[in-house]
Amino acid sequence: MADVEYEHFVDWDKMGELAQSGGPSKLDCRDLGDLKQAARQGLWSKSHRLRAQVYQQLIKAIPCRTVTPDAEVYRDIVGKVVGKRAPATLPLPEFVDGSPVPKLCLNAEGVAAAHKIIACVASQFPDISYCPALPAAVALLLHFSRDEADCFEKICRILACNEPGRRLLDQTFLAYESSCMTFGDLANKYCPSAHRLIVAAASQDVMEVYSDWLRWVFGDLPLAHAARVLDVFLVEGYKVLFRVALALLKFFRRVRSGPPQEAGDIRGEIRAFARGIGSCVSPDKLLEKAFAIRLFSRKEIRLLQLANEKSLQQKGITVKQKRQNVHLAVNPETFSSEIVSAKEMRDIWAWVPERFALCQPHLLFTTAEHGCSLNRFYSHCEGHEPTLLLIRTTDGEVCGAYLSTDWEERRRGGGKLSFFGTGECFVFRLKPEMERYEWVVIRHPELAAAAPPQNPETPEDPNTLPAKEESSDPTDRLSPFLSARHFNLNTRNTSMFMAGSQESIIIGGGDGNALYIDADLNHGRTARCHTFDNQPLCAEAFQIALLEVWGFQDAMAS
Q1: Is the model's pLDDT at 88 over the cut of 90?
Q2: Domain named Rab-GAP TBC: which ranges (predicted)?
Q3: DSSP letter at 156?
Q4: Is the whole-model pTM more than 0.70?
Q5: Residue 227, H or E segment
Q6: What share of the chain is helix, strand, coil (3-state, %, to 5)?
Q7: Spatial separation of the C-alpha atoms in residues 552 and 361, rounded to whole Å
Q8: Using one digit for the tens of pLDDT, what is the confidence trace for 283-335?
């Protein structure tokens, strides 16, 4: 039976039991403990109207920023934001990362309204850089909102929550990615059987599977289940989402019996299971399983999340890499390397500077064809920048370096070994595990401040306007594209990018070299160095089985 007050956006014929108006007509909870119990037991889940009223009270009680957009703001801006475009065709903002508006029993008017609301949210929250859960959250709230403006105000209050220690929706890639890592840690501990299945069956990186964990909950779950999760989430916060996703994973493992299929699309299987969970697991059973898991406290989850955020920051991973077109550069049908697969080369290509992302890899030198000679290495590589160095050791380990500058620069040293290059250089290892090490100054900008050289002998011109005062934040001026001389470095060791002579090539310096390769291209060493603050890239003393150097060929010119 349709609720007239909330009928605008809902296809009531598809609502089933959710359209019923049973249960209590009002909520009587004296404290937070009572409220938690009521939410977990689904006290207001049998009355659409009561649920809407409870949501209104819970969201209104969220502490928010002083200036938080409300319903009146929506009415003022929606016409300007939408313009003459059909609402359903409004593109979703880039920060939702391709997440569509789930229908969740919404009618066509509801889907169009969700697009309008999300567009208005994007205009009012320019600080949001990554929030794939937003479309699902808006779609859910529309069910329990009187109109678009009411839904807009609700989602804005959730996004603008400023209560210390309280977390609702992730709004940056760093926060979201660290939550995926945290979920992976929890899955490994609390769902070991499912975790082993994913590790064995994933054709892609395991973290790619876990990167969907929040989409399982807000996006894939059917409305009856998602609404029950939202009931508890608005009362207890973010940790509920971890619990529900872990419970879903446990149920998936129970259904997915038998030995793992190595080539199976486990990522797609889990999402399909979440969409169809209603056929085998009720909302009550899902929450019962979720709260039966003995999980960390909210404080401990937060500490784990902060540790993962710190790890990502140290690796320089704070924004989502825009590499949708990497597959255009690394074509598996034409790419051929004796060291890495096309997929591994794509992973490396996703690290290179944006302006080279669409260049195609072009083999310049390989010891398999050109022999083990440093002179031939130089003759084939000079005149090309940047270049990518790949090494496979006799132990099967794979590592390498992205080198920003032409090897011909080594000649400027007048026969002496001298370092050159820029802060875009990085080193990496692929096997046995994948890891990239960028210039240490990118991860720790306090080590340097870009400062243009000034001539102290130039007199001050009284008729010249005063120069704009530079920001005290070194990250405002930091650009790894610049060479080391543009920075006030506290030690020269942090700028030893690459060097070459007739005896060796060296990458990274200061208390060791990230890579040292001898003149015969036969033996090498690796160690921690100040330039990249890296771990050894393979066995510290290694023998080279194969070495390749790849250039970057402009796809438009080929």
Answers
A1: no
A2: 34-237
A3: H
A4: no
A5: helix 223-236
A6: 45, 10, 40
A7: 5
A8: 999 999 999 988 667 777 888 888 888 877 766 666 665 544 445 567 778 88
